[in-house]
Design a protein that fits this description.
Strands 1, 2, 3, 4, 5 and 6 form a 6-stranded mixed β-sheet that branches. The chain contains 8 helices and 6 strands; from the N terminus they run H-H-E-H-E-E-H-E-E-H-E-H-H-H. It has about 210 residues and is of the alpha+beta class.
Length: about 210
């Protein structure tokens, strides 16, 4: 009996070490990508492959902000557990948020949104509230940082509501009132800056 107990303890410890190692590798992958580097270490490449993530294939970034009514809960880990049942990809706790890289080659935006919405509903049954933002679809891991920003803006738009917001469903104004960056400039029709500059130089009359 003592031998069985010791073996069980050893097995449990080995599993805990394995999980911790996988979490560290996933975090390293995310930080590589946000720094503009495609992971080159073999274990990181293998983790990306297992997650269905290939450079040049379509992916989105999701950002989940979660809170719980239970004092002893870890809402981010609860969100990761539930979302992983609904979504492929890699889910990483990062700076008080849960960040996910989700391959979308075989997943339409509508289907993705429905899967995430079901996860939010499932979390509600565990007394965990989640707001989730979803970026535009991107190709190429050099766009990971831009995709993260889009997902964060979509999440900001929810204002803490237990809902899902797709970045592509935001209006340019929704984005512009929150950020001033290359994405914001991309959303603005080129005629608008020219109109503003012309009006300001003449008076201004309309602005």
């Amino acid at each position: 009996e003592a031998g069985c107990s010791a073996a069980a303890t050893t097995y449990l410890q080995a599993q805990q070490y394995l999980v911790a190692d996988q979490e560290r590798i996933a975090l390293d992958c995310l930080e590589d990508l946000l720094a503009g580097n495609v992971p080159a270490v073999p274990v990181r490449l293998e983790a990306m492959r297992r997650a269905g993530l290939a450079d040049g294939a379509g992916f989105v970034v999701i950002v989940c902000r979660a809170s719980s009514e239970a004092d002893d809960a870890d809402p981010i880990l609860d969100a990761r557990r539930v979302l992983s049942r609904h979504l492929p990809g890699m889910l990483v706790p990062w700076r008080q948020e849960l960040v996910g890289l989700v391959p979308v080659e075989r997943l339409s935006p509508g289907a993705l949104s429905q899967k995430v919405a079901r996860a939010v509903a499932d979390l509600g049954t565990t007394r965990t509230a989640a707001s989730i933002g979803i970026s535009s679809a991107h190709r190429g891991f050099d766009q990971t940082a831009e995709a993260l920003l889009e997902a964060q803006v979509a999440c900001d738009h929810l204002g803490g509501r237990r809902e899902v917001q797709i970045f592509d469903d935001l209006s340019p104004l929704d984005y512009l009132v929150r950020r001033a960056d290359p994405t914001a400039r991309r959303l603005v029709e080129p005629q608008l800056p020219a109109f503003i500059a012309e009006d300001l130089s003449a008076g201004p009359i309309y602005i």
